[in-house]
C-alpha cells in the first residue's frame, strides 16, 4: 500500500511533462488518477499516459477540456466526481508561456497566459471545493514558479500568473482551512523539460552556474514535492510556497 492509497487525484495539464510525472508518482503511491489536457489522443500523449498509469493498477481516465472555460470545467469536475466517487487532491498544473518584453507584449499574449495559467486554477478550485467540503478534507496544490516570486524580464504575463497562483493558494488555504482543506504552491526553478532542453547550451550553462546544486531540476523532483504536499505527511502544512530550485533563490 502506498501513502495515497484510496485517494483520487485530479491533475490538470497532465498528458506529459511535469503534470505526467506527478500523475505517475501519485499512481505509484496508490492514488487513482483523473487527469485533464486540452486534447486526449495519441498524437499529444494523452492516451499513452492513460496506458502507463493504468499499468500501475490504479483507476485512471484522461479528460479533454479547456481549463480556462468556467462552465466546461464545472461539467468536467462533475463527471470526474461521478466516475471516481471522490476528489481528494487537486493539482493545478495547466500552463502555457507566451513570452515577450512588456512594450512588445500584445493583449492577446497577456490574456492567453492569465486565462490558462491562473483562471484555470480558479475554475478547478471553484468546482472541486464543494466536493472536498463534503468530504471534510482535501489538498490543493498550485503549480507556481520562481518567477512568480522574483519576477523575470520578458515574462511579465507568466510571472504575474504564477504570482497569482501563490496568492490564490494562500487565500484558499485561509478560507478553507476550517473545512479541513489545505492549499499550497510549488515554485519550480530551472527544470529539465522538453521546453528548456531546446534552449541554447550557453543559456543553459548560465542558468546552471547560478544554482548551488549545479544541475537543473527534474520533473521527478517536482513530483516528489507534490507527493509530500498531497499526502498526510504534510497534514499540518497550508498556505506555503516551496521553491524547488536547487537553492537558486535562497
From TrEMBL:
Its EC number is 1.1.1.100. One of its GO terms (biological process) is fatty acid biosynthetic process. It catalyses: a (3R)-hydroxyacyl-[ACP] + NADP(+) = a 3-oxoacyl-[ACP] + NADPH + H(+). The active site is at 158 (proton acceptor). It holds the Pfam family adh_short_C2. CDD domains: BKR_SDR_c. Residues 7-189 form the Ketoreductase domain. It comes from the Bacteria. NADP(+) binds at residues 13-16, 93, 158-162, 191. Homotetramer. Belongs to the short-chain dehydrogenases/reductases (SDR) family. Catalyzes the NADPH-dependent reduction of beta-ketoacyl-ACP substrates to beta-hydroxyacyl-ACP products, the first reductive step in the elongation cycle of fatty acid biosynthesis. PANTHER family: 3-OXOACYL-(ACYL-CARRIER-PROTEIN) REDUCTASE, 3-OXOACYL-[ACYL-CARRIER-PROTEIN] REDUCTASE FABG. This is 3-oxoacyl-[acyl-carrier-protein] reductase. The lineage of its organism: Bacteria, Pseudomonadati, Bacteroidota, Bacteroidia, Bacteroidales. The gene is fabG.
Amino acid at each position: 500500500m502506498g501513502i495515497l492509497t484510496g485517494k483520487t487525484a485530479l491533475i490538470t495539464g497532465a498528458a506529459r511533462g511535469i503534470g505526467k510525472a506527478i500523475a505517475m508518482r501519485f499512481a505509484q503511491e496508490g492514488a487513482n488518477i483523473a487527469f485533464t489536457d486540452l486534447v486526449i489522443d495519441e498524437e499529444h500523449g494523452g492516451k499513452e499516459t492513460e496506458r502507463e498509469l493504468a499499468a500501475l493498477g490504479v483507476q485512471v481516465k484522461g479528460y479533454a477540456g479547456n481549463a480556462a472555460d468556467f462552465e466546461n470545467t464545472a461539467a468536467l469536475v462533475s463527471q470526474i466526481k461521478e466516475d471516481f466517487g471522490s476528489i481528494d487532491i487537486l493539482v493545478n498544473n495547466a500552463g502555457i508561456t507566451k513570452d515577450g518584453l512588456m512594450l512588445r507584449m500584445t493583449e492577446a499574449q497577456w490574456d492567453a497566459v492569465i486565462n490558462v495559467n491562473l483562471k484555470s486554477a480558479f475554475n478547478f478550485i471553484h468546482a472541486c471545493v464543494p466536493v472536498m467540503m463534503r468530504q471534510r478534507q482535501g489538498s490543493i496544490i498550485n503549480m507556481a514558479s520562481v518567477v512568480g516570486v522574483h519576477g523575470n524580464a520578458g515574462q511579465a504575463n507568466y510571472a504575474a500568473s504564477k504570482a497569482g497562483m501563490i496568492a490564490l493558494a494562500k487565500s484558499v488555504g485561509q478560507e478553507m482551512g476550517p473545512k479541513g482543506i489545505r492549499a499550497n504552491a510549488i515554485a519550480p526553478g530551472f527544470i529539465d523539460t522538453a521546453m528548456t532542453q531546446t534552449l541554447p547550451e550557453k543559456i543553459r550553462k548560465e542558468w546552471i552556474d547560478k544554482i548551488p546544486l549545479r544541475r537543473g531540476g527534474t520533473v521527478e523532483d517536482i513530483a516528489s514535492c507534490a507527493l509530500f504536499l498531497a499526502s498526510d505527511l504534510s497534514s499540518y502544512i497550508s498556505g506555503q510556497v516551496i521553491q524547488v530550485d536547487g537553492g537558486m533563490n535562497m
